[in-house]
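hey can u check if this looks right to u? its 874 residues, i copy pasted from the old doc so theres a chance i mangled smth
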Amino acid sequence: MGWLGLLLFLAALVFLSRLGSRSGVEQRLRALETQVLWLQREAEQMRQELAALKGQDVDAGPPPASTPLLEAVEETAPPLTDEEAATPPLPVIEPAAGTPATVPTETEATAETTAMPFWQRLLAGNLLAKIGVVLLFFGVASALRLAADYGLLPVPLRLLLGTVAGGAMVAFGWNRVHQGVRTHFGIALQGGGFAILYLIVYFMHVRYALFGATPAFLLFALLGVACVLLAVAQDGVVLAAFGLAGAFAAPVLAATGSSDPTPLFAYFVLLNTFIVGVSWFKNWRLLNVTGFLMTIGVGMAWAVEHYRADYHGVSQAFLLFFWGLYSVMPVLMALFRAPGWAGWSDSTLVFGTPLVGFALQSQLAADRYELAWAALAAALYYLALWVLLFRRRDEALRVLERCQLGLGIAFGTLVAPLAFGAQVTAAFWAVEGVAVLWFGVVQRRKLAMICGAGLQVAAAAYFLYGLPQMQTGLPVINDIFLGMVLLAGAGFASARLLRGVDERVAIPALLWAFAWWVLAGWSESERHLPMVQSTPVTLTYIALSLIALEVLGRRSAWNALRHLSLLLLPVLWLAAGSAWLHGQHMLAGLMVLALPLSLAGHYWLLARQQVDGLVLWPSVRHVGGFWLGMLLISGELAWLGFRLAPGATLWPVLAMALGPLSGLWLAVEGSRRALPPVSAAPLTYRGLGSLLPAAWLVAWLLWAGWAHDGGGSGLPYVPLLNPFDLVQLAVLATLYRWLRGFEEDPWPDTPLPQANRVGILAFVWISCLAARIAHHWGGIPFRADTLWHSTLLQAMLTLLWTLTAIAAMIRATGIGVRRLWQAGFALLAVVGAKLLFVDLAGAGTLLWTGSLIGVALLVLAASYFAPVPPPEEG
């Protein structure tokens, strides 16, 4: 039956009932404010007249008494209309001596009925009289029973005494009210009298069998009608409710044992018609609610015990009458401004009628399709009532009008789940949601806009609920894909409508629509393609969608539509990670085309939006794409190294550096030569975007120098000309260029090391180069302890460090930097210390002698070519 739809229907009724009740409270507060202000003005006028009669100056008298409540009401209340200002005072009839009671008019009864809960109205008035009447009723009932049990007095005399007592109570109570004396007492006394008369008729029929069921039924009904008529004449709503309850109880009290519902329903038709006649002139909510509840209670009690399939027709006819009567009367009375129309503007009647009616209809319906037709008829019916109220354009009817519209939408929403499957239901609700949202936007009604959005959320939830039972069928042409696309289309249409209200309000709807669009493409590729192909297809689908939205957004000047391109960057990272997990590298299968092209699309979107000055989070998007490109280069080169040279260990190690190296080089050269995409944000690429790859390259340079011997490439090892040394030299040069660029064009508020600090890394590289030469050419195992005790390595370190120191000193002399010359000299001192404390262990050997002579010659050359620069040049 579509339980989700039924829950939505119930939730809508509760929400609308709260709206109606809140509006009712606001109307009551408005009426109360009006009366308080009128009373205050009347008091002021009376004070002035009294002062004039006494011959006093009005201004000299004390100000009228005021309370904080009155002052607050006067400050916050809106100006009175002419009708409100002319409202006459509540007439007060002088009570008898010593009795402060007043006679309530119809206005007072109405205010009491609408302002207090039912239990408070029962306790209001003369409470002692009510308690006494109740006790008297039970006392008479006990007396009649005792008289019957013990044979006291003849039966006719017992019944006559009871009838006289009941009639006397009714007559005396009527007299009190008519005389305007102790009105509440009189009404309570009349209620007790009618109760005793009901009791007498019941004893005559049940205990003594003086007449049959039909006369008893007629007497019960006459007593109820008479009680209501007396209540109308006296403005006694509680008495009317009591009499009406007795009239509804008549079929139960005079039950004949027959299960035929025709007489019962015909009688209920007359009673409810009678209620409508009374309530047309009396603003008695209690009377209307009593009729509503008694009809339901007695009718359902009959149905539980006696209903059979043979009674379907007459039961259906009465249900339609009951539903139609209690649903149309609030509208008709409001349209014709009946005197008692406010008594029908109650959430219990407005929302309880369709709720109870549809619940009973669900029990009478043969199947879900018959119930679907009933929901459709109810939707059209309530929409017709809404049209009647909407065309009046009356502000006072707005709440009731919205209630009818909400009920029409709620019943219309129920049609699809009762008649169709999940996909059709979701589609219907989505389209309905767009229609309701359009109405809300056009009429500037927030409630309608909220309901329209809620219907689309409900459509999505119901679609997911029925997803396991849907048919996949052919690719694209199947229930799942088309359903999701329809939800996405409804979302985009809603976003376009909401854009006319506020572009910020349209953003959630836009994200909702795009999420369903992406889910449609992703789920379709997942069902029909293997994982290796599904990821690139989904990535291409999303990238092309965002490109299309960018073009459309630029043409329609819809910035939010263009800003959806922010989502492409996380999608690129997710797709790359998925390809890595399932294909062992990021360009597996069709990703070799999809990922680079989508990354290019990302930069194209970024460039267009930067040109228009509409880009959001440009630094994050530039850096995110930049890092992904470096990761892609390293990852693919490593995979190619493993694939093309399975036994070579050097290529994956070099691949770890080539990605960040190429990225850092692009940042430096792209900034200098204005190459895209660096030219769009040069400081972002040279600064924030380069910090991570630069740190990575420093760590890689130190790790690889000590951990790898430079072999494993499949090529013979040639110092400086092998792939390992060439890559390390490129890393050193690029780091130097990167830091040198900040000396020429500093990064604001961000201190970085000077470019000459790269010399430390160069010194480490030279030392590791000596170790690799000793390993490859001297056959020394590439282990730290073995290399350190190698005479060959120590001699090479001595020569290389000396060459480095002399080169630094010559360079310092040439450029006049005294600090660099001092650093070279310090390195020479280290070499000297090394000759004395480390290399001395190999004294007398050919290597030690050759290195000592070489160092001496180099020092002599340095003394000639690299004198100390003057201090002022340093």
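Confidence is low (pLDDT under 50) at residues 1-25, 56-116, 126-130.
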